[in-house]
Specification:
The complex is a heterotrimer. By secondary structure, chain B is of the alpha/beta class. Helix content of chain B is 34%, strand content 22%. Chain B has two domains: 206 residues, Rossmann fold (3-Layer(aba) Sandwich); 58 residues, no CATH class. In chain B, strand 1 and strand 2 form a beta hairpin. In chain B, helix 3 runs parallel beside helix 5 and helix 4 packs across helix 5. The longest helix of chain B has 17 residues. The longest helix of chain C is centred in the last third of the chain and has 26 residues. Chain C is mainly α. Chain C is globular and about 65 Å long. The chains are: A alpha+beta, B alpha/beta, C mainly alpha. The interface between A and C is large, with 81 and 89 residues. The structure holds adenosine-5'-diphosphate and magnesium ion. Magnesium ion binds next to helix 1 of chain B. Chain A: It is found in: Cell membrane.
Chain lengths: 439, 285, 326
């Protein structure tokens, strides 16, 4: 009995300790705050905001507010672009911009965020922002052009799909190389893509550096980030013999941390990165940078293939991916190979990030939003090989873009994921890799 | 030489008087490597059969194939006349053919007694809905626990009853795995290197236990490198090399077989086979 | 700035229906991962099934409160079957990727404009809890004491939510102390060993997936009773929060997820309140109020990383009971 009590007390103490520790991070600052401001005295609660296209305020835009047990209200922006809706009290509300009330040409910067959840508790009035695309700098994506009579929609989607597939392939190879050599399912891989896109944006758009040089600098920096995260996180964890599942969860945590740091630095909106002239590719107007990206991408993929099959280092990498302990026994320095893999994966993913940024535009969570497509590519291709990842990425890229001919655009990612699951169902051996030894 | 086990003279793949397990054309390839290629083999019922052969001979792979843990490239086999090819491993076990693993699979984060209880068959409480209604399975649980405690005593593990299996030594885990397999009251128990790493002080009681199994009517098939042990308790010996069965027969006869000596020792035919035991016994940790 | 309000709000999270819902979802996940070793990264999907199954049944098909719950549970079982059939035979890390993908597929499907009439598209659904509040046994009034003071509606949803948590706890305790629980724990340790003892591992994994998923579905219902159904809530991030909560309390424990959920929400509310206060007072100048949300996520991410490396068994778990050996 007393034993029980002691264990319970110990557990409680640990809980309290953890609580105090986390809390301690916050308390010192608040301890100085002796007198706060008076409580906002009213019991009036409201949600509001302002809708602007660039610097022009928009009038007559409707915003609906839904609350608990059926509360529903609609606000409309006035001549100053402002709207405000009184709400019954504290709680969570769901605020939706009625996209159909926007003037033609105006659209949300992030079409997925026409809706936000707002919580009212400490503050009585909450502002909700819906950033719109600045119509002065329209972003063009291949196939996004309104289909004119001579534009072949089918071909347009195919070209866009191949383009996406090639760009996805470079990032997917990075993911697959890391998985192959360390067996880590890296959920923070998307953030390297984002880092690539955002750095390119910083160099090119903020600092005004030439795009090519920006891309080069970005690649070097993301490669360095690969080396750094291996040295700072993954190698120590391997040394501690932390399990693979644990490492996978660490990568999930890392992804959250990095993603929201991006959001704090760069904000929640989409950064327009693409630019330049439009080329005619088989009758499909396509942005020149994307055509060039795809070309460069193919060359890089060929180089990677040559590196893995022809060079000593590449062969050693494949040996480690095949069987790390056997490779170690034959005198290969496995840790060194892993370090190199992180750098190569970083470089490939960084380039991919720049090009995907040019293709899809850059935002704080772009990498995370395509993370599952990368996993799908690696899984589809199977075997954790670079070649498999490339094929998988092309299949996924083409499927994502082509499927929109048949299914609604907002389901295109879902379609690609369904394909991945179906492939697993029909050909599990394709993704199982080597059969595991039993007994 | 005649014996009561085989029909006629002992030879690789010979017919048995009363076989419990019969396999035909069982082969397994890994890429280009043929790990197992057994034309015909029969395991005699109610006897202790040793399966011996150098490392990499394909013994473990054959176990995996016969128990449904691996799929053969070709082959069919029957257990007590029932066709087992393509039958899921858990169903094989339910038919009374229980195997252990060369690399021990004790369930580390379960206690020793829970490991043992898991071996029992026909516990109604293992069914999803019945699990919620204790009266449905309490009696069976008590009976299983008694049986488990008895076995633990036999295997000198009773002091560890409530410890996590993770806290056992390598040898103790081997014992636990074997005891757990016996909880299922198998008709045929297949032990993959049961003595490897077991404290030599315990070996004798283990041997006695295996003999007890036989007297209770259980058939035993075991893989072993210790030739003294093989000679001591087995009624029949099957020798594998490079995936094939190269010799078969009563222990005394097989030990003298030139094919066996070649398979094990290659050119160094003058070394006594018995020396293997000393090396293995030292591996205990 | 009123600090008592900040602390009051944080304390109120201890019994909030959201805390109950997350605790319930985390208990379900503990059944999956903590006890059976299944890497389910799609718990958000089970919650979405609860939310949408319930709301659509009421709004579009006019079903009663209890009927709607029953429909959600049936959908949950079907979803578990669809998810489990292709994946439970695969290596465990594939289960992780497939479950996360399935959850995303479901989210895309409920938010697509093509199903707007059924699911409300990206605006979601509301007004489905009328009957739930109509059967409220508590007369109009204010209940409890500061900082837990609530209206009769708030009390009812709390009583309902926590009752379900209590029932789920008892259910899982009974299951895990039964021979069934022994088998699934064995599967967590080494499924081949369990198979060699004549247990149908695949069936047990499926049962575990269904059981934990059903708890996730109930969590989804409890979660939406006090708010609107909104597709944006069922992102992968939700699953990761449930994982954090489960790992915080201890994956292979029944009470861990409950305490984990309480700690999680209290800390989250405190962080938000304190940061907001400090920003408003001008003590913190490097953050704007918009950036407080991201800071919370960063803290959750850091917490998750630290937890899984330094205390994988959670606060209440037995170090020996849970090892990540998948
Ligand atoms: N899963 C597998 N993949 C590839 N080769 C294997 C696998 N399992 C066994 N082998 C090979 O098959 C041969 C037989 O192995 P095994 O059955 O373990 O031999 P034994 O148990 O007789 O020592 C060995 O050459 C081994 O390397
Ligand atoms: Mg072997």
């Amino acid at each position: 009995m007393s034993q029980l009590l002691i264990t319970a007390t110990k557990k409680f103490a640990v809980a309290l300790g953890l609580f105090t520790f986390l809390f301690g991070l916050l308390v010192p600052a608040s301890a100085f705050a002796v007198e706060g401001e008076p409580v906002p005295d009213s019991n009036v609660f409201s949600i509001g905001g302002i809708i602007k296209d660039g610097d022009v305020v928009l009038e007559g835009i409707e915003i609906s507010v839904l609350g608990a047990d059926g509360f529903e209200a609609v606000g409309t922006t006035g001549a100053d672009g402002r709207w405000s809706v009184p709400v019954p009290g504290k709680g969570e509300y769901q605020v939706t911009l009625r996209v159909e009330t926007l003037p033609t040409g105006a659209s949300l910067r992030d079409p997925d965020r026409s809706q936000k959840t707002v919580k009212i508790d400490v503050v009585n009035t909450v502002n909700v922002l819906f950033p719109l695309n600045d119509t002065t700098t329209p972003a063009v994506k291949p196939g996004d052009k309104p289909a004119t009579a001579e534009t072949n929609v089918f071909l347009g989607r195919l070209i866009a799909g191949v383009n996406l597939g090639i760009l996805l392939a470079m990032a997917a190879i990075g993911l697959s190389l890391i998985y192959g050599t360390t067996a880590l399912n890296n959920f923070a891989h998307g953030e390297m893509v984002t880092l690539g896109a955002l750095l390119a944006f910083t160099f090119n758009k903020i600092l005004g550096i030439d795009l090519l040089l920006s891309a080069l600098l970005t690649t070097i920096l993301v490669a360095a980030s690969g080396w750094f995260q291996d040295a700072a996180i993954w190698r120590p964890l391997r040394k501690r013999r932390v399990g693979l599942t644990q490492m996978m969860i660490v990568s999930i945590g890392l992804s959250l941390v990095v993603r929201y740091i991006f959001q704090i630095i760069y904000g929640g909106d989409t950064k327009v990165l693409s630019q330049g002239e439009i080329w005619d590719v088989f009758g499909v107007p396509t942005q020149a940078v994307n055509v060039i990206s795809a070309g460069v991408g193919v060359v890089i993929l060929l180089l990677v293939a040559a590196f893995l099959t022809k060079t000593r280092l590449g062969k050693a990498t494949r040996a480690v991916a095949d069987n790390a302990s056997l490779a170690a026994a034959t005198g290969i320095d496995v840790e060194r190979i892993i370090r190199i893999v992180w750098v190569i994966a970083g470089a490939l993913t960084g380039i991919s990030g720049v090009m995907l940024g040019l293709f899809l535009q850059a935002s704080w969570d772009m990498g995370f939003s395509i993370l599952l497509l990368m996993f799908a590519a690696v899984t589809l291709g199977g075997l954790g090989t670079a070649f498999g990842a490339t094929v998988g990425a092309l299949v996924i890229g083409i499927f994502v873009e082509m499927s929109t001919l048949v299914i609604p655009t907002d389901l295109k990612f879902a379609g690609a994921l369904v394909v991945m699951i179906l492939v697993l169902l029909i050909r599990p051996q394709g993704i199982l890799g080597k059969a595991q030894r039993i007994g | 030489m005649s014996n009561q086990i085989s029909v006629g003279d002992a030879s690789p793949g010979c017919q048995k008087v009363d076989p419990i397990l019969v396999a035909d054309n069982v082969s397994r390839q890994f890429g280009g490597l043929t790990a197992v290629d057994v034309a015909h083999v029969e395991i005699p019922r109610g006897k202790i059969t040793a399966l011996i052969g150098p490392n990499g001979a394909g013994k473990t792979t054959l176990f995996n194939l016969l128990t449904g843990f691996d799929k053969p490239t070709t082959g069919t086999w029957t257990f007590e006349g029932k066709n087992l090819a393509g039958v899921a491993s858990y169903k094989v076990a339910r038919l009374g053919m229980i195997r252990t693993f060369q690399l021990t699979k004790s369930l580390s984060m379960l206690s020793v007694i829970e490991n043992m209880r898991l071996g029992a068959q026909k516990q109604a409480g293992e069914r999803f809905l019945a699990a919620l209604i204790r009266p449905l399975w309490r009696a069976a649980e008590n009976r299983i626990t008694e049986q488990a405690e008895e076995l633990l005593k036999r295997f000198k593990l009773d002091a560890k009853r409530d410890d996590f299996a993770a806290s056992l030594s390598g040898g103790q885990r081997k014992l636990l795995e074997m005891a757990r397999a016996l909880m299922a009251e198998p008709k045929l128990v297949m032990l993959d290197e049961p003595m490897a790493g077991v404290n030599p002080a315990l070996t004798q009681s283990l041997l006695d236990h295996i003999k007890d199994l036989k007297s209770n009517g259980t058939t035993v098939l075991f893989v072993e490198h210790d030739m003294h042990m093989v000679r001591h308790i087995s009624d029949w010996v099957i020798v594998m090399a490079e995936g094939r069965i190269v010799a078969e027969g009563p222990p005394a006869q097989v030990m003298k077989d030139q094919a066996v000596i070649d398979a094990y020792l290659g050119a160094h035919a003058d070394i006594d086979l018995g020396t293997v035991s000393i090396k293995i016994a030292k591996d205990d940790n | 700035m009123d600090w008592s309000l900040v602390f009051g709000n944080a304390a109120a999270e201890l019994i909030s229906p959201t805390t109950a819902a997350y605790a319930l979802a985390a208990i379900g996940l503990a059944v999956h991962f903590g006890y059976t070793g299944l890497l389910n990264f799609g718990q958000a999907a089970f919650m979405a099934i609860g939310a949408y199954g319930f709301a659509v049944s009421v709004l579009n098909f006019g079903l009663s409160f209890w009927q709607a719950i029953a429909v959600s549970m049936i959908l949950s079982v079907l979803f578990a079957l669809i998810l489990g059939i292709p994946t439970l035979r695969l290596r465990s890390d594939y289960l992780a990727i497939v479950t996360i993908a399935a959850a995303e597929i479901l989210r895309y499907v409920v938010s697509t404009t093509s199903l707007k009439d059924l699911t409300g598209g990206s605006s979601g659904l509301s007004g489905f809890a009328t009957e739930f509040y109509a059967i409220n046994p508590f007369p109009t009034g204010n209940y409890l004491f500061w900082p837990f003071d609530v209206t009769e509606k708030e009390l009812w949803v709390r009583v309902f939510g926590w009752s379900i948590v209590a029932l789920a706890t008892i259910l899982v305790l009974l299951m895990m102390r039964s021979p069934w629980g022994r088998v699934v724990k064995g599967i967590r340790e080494d499924e081949d060993a369990v198979r060699s003892l004549g247990k149908n591992v695949y069936a047990y994994k499926m049962q575990s997936l269904i059981l934990g998923g059903a708890l996730g579905t109930l969590a989804g219902i409890v979660f939406v009773l006090p708010r609107a159904v909104q597709p944006g809530n069922y992102v992968t991030g939700l699953t990761f929060f449930i994982w954090t909560i489960m790992l915080l309390g201890g994956a292979a424990t029944v009470f861990g997820p409950i305490v984990g959920s309480m700690i999680f929400w209290v800390l989250l509310s405190l962080t938000e309140g304190v940061l907001q206060g400090l920003v408003n007072m001008g003590v913190i100048t490097f953050l704007s109020t918009d950036q407080i949300g991201p800071v919370r996520f960063i803290l959750i991410g850091l917490g998750l990383m630290a937890l899984v490396v330094f205390r994988p068994q959670g606060i209440f778990g037995n170090k020996k009971e849970l090892q990540f050996n998948v």
